[in-house]
Amino acid sequence: MDTPAADYTVRAIRPDRAVDTLQRLPYFIGVSGSTVQATGLSMHLVVIPPGARAEPHIHVGYETGIYVLQGRVETRYGEGLTQSMVSEAGDFLFVPPGVPHEAINLSATEPARAIIARNDPAEQDKVVPYRP
């Protein structure tokens, strides 16, 4: 039985522009199904402008790992967005599938930046707005 040859091509991605997302935050797309034909992973840079916040939303069917590179971000989460935690540069954050949440940059003058990793190569197709 013949098995298909694996694609052993290593690829580098340098995002050169932000894209609009359902969360209403600028994303710089890195690894995804559309950029490198990833089958189980996406990884992006998100920038939260000074004083800005994400639209409340839910990720359907995938986990999210976040590593904060710069800034302080409040994440409100849970039913009614009544729970809260603050993360800052050097912190990791885990968001389970289906948990309503929003991210808020706590600085009025500096952007917050984070690396976002998800176990879905087409995660933006599965973001649902949340109305508390």
Labels describing this entry:
132 residues; mainly beta; Jelly Rolls; five-stranded antiparallel beta sheet; three-stranded antiparallel beta sheet; 1 helix; globular
Could you walk me through the main structural features you see in this protein, from its secondary elements to its overall organization?
- It is a single chain.
- The longest helix is centred in the N-terminal third of the chain and has 4 residues, at 33-36.
- This protein has one helix at 33-36; strands at residues 27-31, 42-48, 57-59, 64-70, 72-77, 83-88, 92-95, 101-105, 112-118, 127-129.
- It is globular, with a radius of gyration of 16 Å.
- The strands form three sheets. The protein has a five-stranded antiparallel beta sheet. Strands 6-5-8 form a three-stranded antiparallel beta sheet, with no helix packed on it.
- The relative contact order is 0.27.
- With 132 residues, the protein is mostly beta strands.
- The chain has a single domain (27-129), classed as Jelly Rolls (Sandwich), CATH 2.60.120.10.
Identify the CATH homologous superfamily.
Jelly Rolls
Q: What is the H/E order?
A: EHEEEEEEEEE
Strand residues, percent: 35-45%
Runs in which pLDDT lies below 50 for 5 or more consecutive residues are: none
